[in-house]
Amino acid sequence: MHNTEYRKYNVDDFDPAQFYDHHDSLEGCGPDEEKVRQLLEANQLQDALKASLLSPPLGHQEQNLKDNSTLLVAHVLHYSFKSSDLVSIQEIIDNQLSIDEVDILMKYIYKAMQLSSESSTCQSLLTWHSLLVAKFGHGAIVRVLAGRQRL
C-alpha cells in the first residue's frame, strides 16, 4: 500500500473557473435602499451615491437582487444629479470616487442601460459614462467588460 496522506486537498476546489455560490442569505448584500432613500431626502447626494455603491451583489445568483440594486443606483444617478449640474458631477468623480468604486459604478451604468427603456435615464447614464471615461480612461470600460463578476 502506498501512503495517500498527500491527498488532503481537492485541486478542483482551487480552480478559478469553478463557481460556488456560498451566499445562503441575501442579507448584507446590495446597497441599503432605506439608507440611500433617507440620504436622498436629506439632499446628501454624494453620500447617497457612496452608499448605493456599497456591497454590490456581484457574487449572487439572485437576478432580482441585482436588478433592484441597479435600478436604485440608476435612480440616484438620474434623479438626484441634474445633467445641467455637470460641475458637481465632475467634482464628485474627481474627488470622491476611488478606482474600485468607479469600476462598480460602470458595471451599474451598463446594466442600467440594459434595463432602462426611458431615453432620459439613458441620457443621464451616458453623461456619467462619458465623464468617467474622460477621467479614468478606457481602462474603466475594459475592466467592466473583462471582469468575471456580472450584475
From TrEMBL:
InterPro entries: ARPC5 (IPR006789), ARPC5_sf (IPR036743). Keywords: Cytoplasm, Cytoskeleton. Pfam families: P16-Arc. GO terms for cellular component: Arp2/3 protein complex. GO terms for biological process: Arp2/3 complex-mediated actin nucleation; regulation of actin filament polymerization. It comes from the Eukaryota. Functions as component of the Arp2/3 complex which is involved in regulation of actin polymerization and together with an activating nucleation-promoting factor (NPF) mediates the formation of branched actin networks. Arp2/3 complex plays a critical role in the control of cell morphogenesis via the modulation of cell polarity development. This is Actin-related protein 2/3 complex subunit 5. It comes from Caenorhabditis remanei (Caenorhabditis vulgaris).
